[in-house]
TrEMBL record:
<dbReference type="InterPro" id="IPR036138">
    <property type="entry name" value="PBP_dimer_sf"/>
</dbReference>
<protein>
    <submittedName>
        <fullName>Penicillin-binding protein</fullName>
    </submittedName>
</protein>
<dbReference type="Pfam" id="PF00905">
    <property type="entry name" value="Transpeptidase"/>
</dbReference>
<dbReference type="InterPro" id="IPR050515">
    <property type="entry name" value="Beta-lactam/transpept"/>
</dbReference>
<keyword id="KW-0472">Membrane</keyword>
<dbReference type="InterPro" id="IPR012338">
    <property type="entry name" value="Beta-lactam/transpept-like"/>
</dbReference>
<dbReference type="InterPro" id="IPR005543">
    <property type="entry name" value="PASTA_dom"/>
</dbReference>
<dbReference type="Pfam" id="PF03717">
    <property type="entry name" value="PBP_dimer"/>
</dbReference>
<dbReference type="Pfam" id="PF03793">
    <property type="entry name" value="PASTA"/>
</dbReference>
<dbReference type="InterPro" id="IPR001460">
    <property type="entry name" value="PCN-bd_Tpept"/>
</dbReference>
<comment type="similarity">
    <text>Belongs to the transpeptidase family.</text>
</comment>
<feature type="domain" description="PASTA">
    <location>
        <begin position="588"/>
        <end position="647"/>
    </location>
</feature>
<dbReference type="InterPro" id="IPR005311">
    <property type="entry name" value="PBP_dimer"/>
</dbReference>
């Protein structure tokens, strides 16, 4: 016995000496085992980058959501006074089915068919992205029915606060599970997909020591690696103008039910896209309304543009000194080799001038003009205008279009927009040359990309001149002719006239190629109706392109009616919102704003009032640090001018202010101003003269221009104002 126990003692003593000396047991490092047992790691989730409009208003962002978990293992309740696992599968499935998009039987099957030893189960997509309101209601019912084992884990989901809003531009992102079971938000369409890498953040982590139950051990240090949120993408899109577009499209869709619609609004001075939308459209959060078409029709699909192309044929002829508006031609039909083309009025209008021919949108006038210009010279100009090649807009999958010029007949039909194909964004880019005195601007939608973790601007887009296909004099002459299509007695675009603003543009009625076989659709409203216009025509600030395909027209309507209703509504509202001076005979002549920065506010206020402006001081007065609008901006009488000084700010009377001006006040003052609606201010939550700090929210209510400027007469005039 003594020898046996003595031997065991020395064996144990030797083993202890070995472990102390080597730090190993059974070939494993004990410190590593201890580290593995007691080390814990907590993930710090990174936010996906936000997408905002040009004024910083939210378009897409991550928001708090919840993930549903059902704990099945009875071990979860060990040592707890409360039951921590699901006991009543039947009743639990019945309650959950009320709150998540999954049938009771499917929920029950998920729990009852779980493998033996499974600790918990989830419910896939149906159990994710639950809102706070849903969770509160579900928790209450679980508590009322004394159910157990249901947990709600904080998560993130992509939030699109504006609903159906530039959906084919913005796209959408959704949760996706990889092969390792990791769930992340991935862009699947639009900007969310194109800039997925920039928008995706990097999760951080917290390393710490804990006991066997997971509690942090005392006097241990946490090693924190901060999460890096995804980059913020600021667009050139203006949320207010985009909403004008969405509203106009919704109204037209309700009345005419067209197969497709598209609107692009651009700043011709810079190439910035201020709005872009199409129908059908969808809600990015739910994907409701998403069809088999995932393409952004503004640049990924091509069209035959129809007569809107005539403005570029005209521009080429004027540039080459081949345009004589008072010369005559015989309208009706024109034959080239074995092909005869005809005007929309097959008998023509007799012998008319080229100017009248353009106003009437005569195809035959283009044919005779092409004789003067030379068809190959014409094709050269089209390429200078950017047709047949991609614009280079900062969006993927842009189509180049095809300019047909193999045969003389193809060059002829191209002169009035048939045969050759273009993208709508090419049409807008080409129109900037006419609106911008010959300087064609490259279109873009990304203003800048910023790293929110450091504040560093990663990429910033500046306006880029693409080419100068025509001279400034030619551009001005083209604009005069385009204006005459609206104001002229024979013009086809009379219904596109704006209240208070001059406008010019060209209508289009394009045939639609058959989806199978050759030829075109015919009869009824099987056409693509369009208008490419700009205003004010003397110095265009906006270009708007509207397309409506195959509308269902009431008996008293024609194809240009839905196009005009959308165009006039969007253009008038946008020009007013941007504070563009109306061209009104009775309006006071616009004055250029002087530079008041560095001057005393009292002196500046006095001078501005003498000039007929409405100065608003942000702060307590004294030296002016910033003014808005900038010096040399032309303003009409009674226009608001913001003067920023130091000190506390008293609220002005916002009544009648545009949303853009309120946003400028918000930016300069730093106050928490919250806006409801679009258009112009009608109410505010705190009264004029109230002194507040940055923690006091102020709510202002806005209304659309059509409502504010509605005439006070007995006859209902709202439809006339909206539709033009």
């Amino acid at each position: 016995m003594f020898l046996t126990f003595g031997g065991l003692f020395f064996l144990l003593f030797g083993r202890m000496l070995f472990i102390q000396a080597t730090g190993q047991a059974e070939g494993k490092v004990l410190t590593a085992l201890a580290e593995a047992k007691y080390a814990r790691e907590s993930t710090l989730k990174a936010d996906r980058g936000t997408i905002v409009d040009r004024n910083g208003e939210l378009i897409a962002a991550d928001t708090l959501s919840y993930r549903l978990v059902a704990v099945l293992s009875e071990k979860a309740s060990n040592g707890s006074k409360k039951t921590m696992h699901v006991k009543d599968y039947e009743a639990t499935a019945e309650v959950l089915a009320k709150y998540i998009p999954l049938e009771k039987e499917a929920i029950l099957s998920r729990m009852t068919n779980a493998k033996e030893g499974t600790w918990q189960v989830e419910f896939g997509k149906a159990g994710r992205d639950l809102s706070h309101e849903t969770v509160l209601a579900l928790k209450q019912e679980i508590e009322d029915k004394k159910l157990s084992g249901i947990l709600f884990i904080e998560d993130q989901k992509r939030f699109y606060p504006n609903g159906v809003f530039a959906s084919y531009l913005i796209g959408f992102a959704m949760k996706e599970e990889d092969e390792q079971g990791n769930i992340s938000t991935v862009g699947k369409m639009g900007l969310e997909k194109t800039y997925n890498k920039e928008l995706t953040g990097t999760d951080g982590k917290v390393d710490f020591q804990s006991d066997g139950w997971g509690f942090v051990l005392p006097k241990t240090e946490k090693n924190i690696v901060a999460a890096q949120d995804g980059h913020e993408i600021q667009l050139t899109i203006d949320k207010t103008i985009q909403n004008f577009v969405e509203d106009a499209l919704n109204r037209a869709n309700a009345v005419y039910s067209p197969k497709k619609m598209l609107v692009i609004v651009a700043n011709p001075k810079t190439g910035e896209i201020l709005a872009m939308s199409q129908r059908p459209a969808f809600h990015p959060s739910t994907r409701e309304g998403l069809t088999e078409n995932w393409l952004n029709d503004a640049l990924e699909n091509t069209i035959e543009p129809g007569s809107t192309m005539k403005m570029f044929t005209l521009a080429a002829a004027i540039e080459e000194n081949k345009w004589d508006p008072n010369a005559y031609f015989k309208s009706g039909q024109y034959t080239i080799f074995d092909r005869t083309i005809r005007d929309v009025n097959r008998d023509g209008w007799g012998t008319i001038t080229y100017l009248e021919g353009f106003q009437r949108s005569s195809n035959v006038s283009m044919a005779y003009l092409l004789e003067r210009l030379g068809d190959r010279t014409f094709i050269d100009y089209l390429r200078k205008f950017g047709f047949g090649e991609r614009t280079g807009i900062d969006l993927p999958n842009e189509a180049p279009g095809i300019i047909l010029d193999r045969y003389p007949s193809e060059r002829l039909t191209t002169s009035y927009g048939q045969g050759s194909t273009v993208t709508p964004i090419q049409m807008v880019q080409a129109a900037t040359a006419i609106a911008n005195n010959g300087n064609m601007m490259k279109p873009y939608v990304i203003d800048k990309i910023t790293d929110p973790n450091t504040g560093e601007v990663i990429n910033e887009h500046e306006p880029e001149k693409h080419d100068s296909p025509i001279s400034a004099d030619t551009a001005k002459e083209v604009r005069k002719v385009l204006a005459s299509t609206v104001t002229g007695e024979k013009g086809t675009a009379k219904k596109f006239a704006l209240n208070g603003y001059t406008v010019g543009g060209k209508t289009g009625t394009a045939e639609i190629p058959k989806t199978s076989g050759s030829g075109y659709l015919s009869g009824g409203s099987n056409y693509l109706y369009s208008f490419l216009g700009m205003a004010p025509i003397e110095d265009p600030q906006l270009i708007t392109y509207v397309l409506v395909q195959q509308p269902q027209l009431p008996i008293d309507k024609v194809g240009s009616d839905p196009v005009a209703e959308v165009f006039t509504s969007v253009m008038e509202s946008s020009l007013k919102y941007l504070n563009i001076v109306p061209d009104d005979e009775n309006a006071t002549e616009a004055k250029a704003l002087k530079d008041y920065t560095g001057k005393d506010s009292a002196e500046a206020v006095s001078q501005l009032e003498q000039e007929g402006f409405r100065p608003v001081v942000i702060g307590e007065g004294g030296k002016i640090e910033v003014q808005y609008p900038l010096p040399n901006t032309k303003l009409t009488e009674n226009a608001v001018v913001l003067l920023k000084t130091g000190g506390e700010t008293a609220l002005p009377d916002f009544t009648g202010w545009s949303k853009k001006m309120v946003l400028s006040f918000k930016m300069l003052s730093g106050l928490d101003i919250r806006m409801n609606g679009e258009g112009f201010v009608t109410e505010q939550s705190l009264s004029y003269g109230t002194v507040i700090d940055q923690n006091d929210p102020v709510v202002v209510q806005l209304q659309a221009p059509a409502e504010i400027h509605k005439p006070q007469v007995e006859e209902p005039e709202e439809e006339k104002i909206v539709g033009g």
